[in-house]
Structure formats: structure tokens, C-alpha cells
Amino acid sequence: MTTLPAAFWWCLAGGVLGGGATLFAAWRWLTGAGALRRLRRVLADEGASSIVEFPFALLSLVLIIVLSCQLVFMASAYLVVDYAAYAAVRVAIVAVPEDRSKDDSDEGVNKIKKLDLSDGSKGTDVRDAAIFVCTAISSSGWNAAVAEINEVTAKFGVVLNLPGIDDLPALGGITAYVDRYLYSRYHTTVRMLAEGDSPKQFEEADLLRVEVTHDFELLVPIASRILGTKKDGIYVTHLYGRAAMLNEGFPGEEKEPEGAGSP
User: Fold this and answer.
1) Whole-structure pTM over 0.85, yes or no?
2) How do beta strands 207-217 and 188-193 pair?
């Protein structure tokens, strides 16, 4: 199940406390400086009262609308991240029992190379499942990819300047999908939750747990600054999804099913 990020609750608490403190300070200033009596004389006219109230009402309404829109987008993204964790653990219960020791000695039966899934073919399979699902809620990752390419080529003294490369995602089709897939690959992390150190040896019928973290970009103005944190020039919030399923266990020797064979 997913949980709201700590930043959301800190922002909510800070907004409530800050708003209360601001209103209390304003009330003390108005009553202490005699400004309240002058304000009452100005507001005695209903027309002046409407002029003063309208900007505050409009700003409050706009703030409620943008926050509501962004929270709806976040709630939808939570469902996708939760499903990404489910898809990843579905792959894990099949990949972990496999014997891939011929390619890597640390990837034997019921064994993975690293719990953070950053290395090994089994970790790649599990990560790719979550990354593929999170592509649906990803933004543009083209700029990050181009920046990384430029960083690598700069080490060799090569400047990559291809005309029109920044406009490729706007073409749509497969280029747009690749653009979102790049963002998901750069901003989605997957790890297995288990005791012990890497490489990890599991047992038959162990409960395999997978956690997916996705940096969801907040695109609604104002709300993105309130609910998000700045990362690589964009405002994001960390969405978490967890899922657990039983390990399918030891893949025993292939046996001919009963009743099979020539009569």
C-alpha cells in the first residue's frame, strides 16, 4: 500500500500553523494600533467592503482549485506506483527461484546479487517491470538524457550539437514514448525488502517484498512549489508503492507428467 509523503504532511501542518499565526498577529496589530476602528469606518460602505473582500476570496478560491487539481493527479499516480510494485513482485517470484549461476555465481537458485537490484540480470528484470508501468505517469526525460550524453562526450573533448535534437519528443509516436520511458528510468528506483546483506539467499515459500519509489513531477503552478521539492530543475514528490508475494520456491528437476509418453 502507498502512503502520503512526509513533505505533504509538513506542508499541511506548516500552512495551518503559519496561517493561524499570521491571523493572530494581524488581529493584535489591528486592535493595538487603532487601525481596526479606521478599517470599520472604511468598511461601513458596502461597496468598499466588497472591494476589499473580493481579492481575498479570489486568491483563496484559486489556491483551493490548484491544490485540489494537483492532489487529484497525485492520487492517480499513487495507484500506478502501487501497481508498479505489484508488477515488480510478480516478476520477482518467478525470477528469484531461477538458477542463473552459469552467467553469474551470485545468481543461483533463490538468490539475488543485490537487494537494491542495481546489478544482476534478476534485478534488471524486476526493475524493468516497475519502470515500464511508471512510464504512464512520467514526464519528459529527454533533457536529462541529453545532459548525460553531453557529460560523457565532454570527457573525450567532444561537443554534441545535433540540430533539432530537443524537438524530437514533440514528434509524438514512438519518440514520445521513449521520452517518457527515459524519465521513468531516471526517476524510478526499485529494491527488495529483506533482512541480511547482499547477495541475498532466500528460502522456499519466503515472502518476497518489493518497494518502488517514483519521483512524480508536479506540473500545476503554485501547488507544485507547495507540495513538491525541487530536483534537477523540476518539482517532484516521492511516491512509494509496496507489494509482497510468496516465493514460488525451488525449481526441481523437470519430470515427465504422469500418464504422458507413448502408449
Assistant:
1) no
2) antiparallel
Residue 241 lies in a domain: yes
How is 152-181 classified by DSSP, letter by letter?
A: HHHTTT-----TTGGGGGGG-THHHHHHHH
What is the distance between the alpha carbons of residues 247 and 8, in angstroms, rounded to a whole number? Answer: 35
Please give the Cα distance from 235 to 239 (Å, whole number): 13
Using alpha carbons, select from 83, 192, 174 the residue that is nearest to residue 132: 83
251 inside domain: no
By residue count, the chain amounts to: 263
Cis peptide before 199 (omega within 30 of 0): yes
How many domains is the chain built from? 1
Using one digit for the tens of pLDDT, what is the confidence trace for 229-246? 988 788 999 999 999 998
